[in-house]
Amino acid sequence: QVHLVESGGGLVQAGGSLRLSCEASGSIVSILGMGWYRQTPGNQRVLVASITSGGSPNYVDSVKGRFTISRDNSRNTVYLQMNSLRPEDTAVYYCNSEIVSRTMGRVSSYTYWGQGTQVTVSS
Questions:
Q1: How buried is residue 58: exposed, middle or buried, by Cβ count under 10 Å (0-12/13-18/19+)?
Q2: Average pLDDT per 10 consecutive residues for the chain, totaling 123 residues
Q3: Which of 56, 9, 64 is nearest to 35 (CA)?
């Protein structure tokens, strides 16, 4: 069993900052790509930022220069530092990770999701 647990969401005024964390736990062999998605009511979940196992980041244009994704492989954790937040950043943020795990002696790869954390930016 593998679990992703997110933390760090909340309410912040426009221009403020938040830092999201997502820790993976369980029978983990290795963690490949990690990322953050967000979803607003009535819309699909969309990618915000991702980071490879080697640490190369990728961002959607709307957050470039404001958000920073990073990972701590020793802690199986991915972070999203969000600065200069805007009301349009308001959404539920989900972490996502492709994880190789071992279950009953069998090694397999699967994409896991966190439970989501609400980020609300007031104007």
A1: middle
A2: 94 98 95 97 97 96 98 96 98 97 90 97 96
A3: 56
What whole-number distance in Å separates Cα of residue 102 and Cα of residue 55? 24
Asked if residues 110 and 101 have their Cβ atoms less than 8 Å apart, the reply is: yes
Q: What is the DSSP letter of 84?
A: S
First to last CA, the chain: 41
Cβ-based neighbour number of residue 115 at 10 Å: 12
15 exposed, middle or buried (CB, 10 Å; 0-12, 13-18, 19+)?
A: exposed
Q: What is the DSSP string of 109-123?
A: EEEEE---EEEEEE-
User: What does residue 89 show for φ and ψ, rounded to 5 degrees?
Assistant: -85, -5
